[in-house]
Amino acid sequence: MRAFALLLLLSVADALRFGVTSARNAPDAKSSVPPTISRRALGLGVAGMLAVANSPARAIEEGLTLEDLPPKAQQAYNQYWPAIQLAGDFYVFELRELIGYPGRWDQIGALTETTNIGSAASVSKLDREFLTPMRILALSFPPDAGGEEMQEALTDFQAAMFRMSRQARTGQTTGNLADPSKKDIAALEMTWNAGASALNRFFEALNTATSTKRLVTIPANGVNYPRSKKLYTQLQKDAALCRNRGGEQLAGIWGNLMVYGTVPGVNPCGNVNLQNYFMQ
Questions:
Q1: pLDDT, tens digit, for every residue of 76-112?
Q2: What CA–CA distance (Å, rounded) separates 248 from 270?
Q3: What is the DSSP letter of 69?
Q4: Phi, psi for 269 (deg, rounded to 5)
Q5: Least reliable range by pLDDT among 35-39, 105-109, 199-203, 272-276
Q6: How far is the first Cα of the chain from the last one, in angstroms, to the nearest whole number?
Q7: Is 270 exposed, middle or buried, given 0-12, 13-18 or 19+ CB atoms closer than 10 A?
C-alpha cells in the first residue's frame, strides 16, 4: 500500500513537471493552458494517499486456509469450534424459545449470574459456553486473519447478552405480577436478533479465516435455522443420562452388567454424542 502511494506521488509530480515544461516551451505561452492542479488540491491528494497507505488492514486475507494460520490459531480452532457451534444451537433452540414464555424469563436472566459459595466460585453459563471460547479464538487468531473482526463481534455479542438478561429480569413474571407488555417482548426479541447478528459476524470471520463453512449462521428470529432441533434435544437427553450413570466409562460397565435395563449392543449413554452430533 505504501509503495502504491509512492508511485502515485511520483506520477503526479511527473505530470506537473511535464505540464510546466510544455507550457514554457509552447510557441504562444500566453495561450497555453496552465496546469489546473492547485497546491491545496495537491496537498489534499497527497494527504489522502498517505492516510490510505498508513491505515491498518482490516480485511481478512483472501485465500487463507487453516493450515496457513499460526499453530496456536489452528489448535484453538480445532478445540473450540464444536463448542461455538453448540452454543449457537442453544441460542436458537433454547434461548429463542424462552422469549415466548415470559414465565420462564428468569432463566434468561440467570445466564449472566455467577455464584459464590465460600471460596468456591462458578462462572456464568454465558461466560462458560459463549464468551470464554469466543475470547480464546479471537486472541489466538492474528488481527489481520480474523482476530480483530472476532473481537469486535465478541464485544457486541456480550453487550447484547447483558442487555437481554437485564430486560428479562425486569419483565419476568413472578407471583401475581402482570405479564410483560407486547412492547417489552418485542424489545427482547430485538435484542436477541442483535446478539444473533453479532454471533453471525463471529462465525463468518472464523469461517473466512479458515476457508471453511463449518459454522452455521443464524437467520432472523431463528426462522428456518438449518440445523436439527431433534438431534439437539436428543443430545441433551443422552448427555444428562450419561452423567447420571457416571460418564461413558462407568455407564459402559453398568451396561455390560445389565444394569439400568440396558441390553447388549445398546449404548447406555445413548446414540447421539458430540462425536456424531456435528456430522449433520
A1: 999 999 999 999 999 999 999 999 888 899 999 999 9
A2: 10
A3: S
A4: -100, 10
A5: 35-39
A6: 43
A7: middle
